[in-house]
Design brief:
Layout: H1 11-52, E1 53-57, E2 72-76, H2 79-82, E3 90-93, E4 103-109, E5 114-118, E6 121-124, E7 127-128, E8 148-149, E9 154-158, E10 176-177, E11 181-190, E12 196-197
Antiparallel strand pairs: 1-2, 2-11, 3-4, 3-11, 4-9, 5-6, 5-8, 6-7, 9-10, 11-12
Amino acid sequence: MGMRFKRKHTDSDDVIKTKPSENKEHLLNSIFIWFVVVLSGAIFGYALITFVFQTVHVIGPSMNPTLEDGEVVIVNKFIYNVSDVKRYDVVAYSLIEEDGYYDIKRIIGMPGEEITIKDGFIYADGKQLKDLPFTDRIITSGLAADTIYLGDGEYFVLGDNVNNSEDSRYSNVGNISEVEILGKVSFIVKADDKKGKVK
């Protein structure tokens, strides 16, 4: 008669028994982590586009040579929540009645100022602005031939291509309200021969 022995219990038995459930748990954890990462990335990307940055296409020659037709720029929509609009900032704005069309111009006149263009030069509160980022003398004064008064939250804008720009000198544009400003044009991201910070 053969001898029978009772099999001794070992720790390896527990390992073998629990390994399938551990693998399943590990897989579920990996899927959950992957889902959280993807969801977080989507939320972060949406927040950036909605609240911080937006791309805008430059249309027309009004901002030459600073910005040229067809270039793509990044607009910082958040910056004016933490700092003030400054003279000579390049901004994207949309007239409320234009329903989402963004134009790009440079801030020249600040709230509360009196703006006049005389003999090709720009005056703010009677003082000539001599540090302009463009050098062309202005041929057409438009509405600024007479004094333009800027109220609270109002800005006078010009295109850098001052003699080929439709801007605050014309009645169909006029003074720009702070609520119409989308943000500051900060970077050129798509251009034939230039990329970088907008000055």
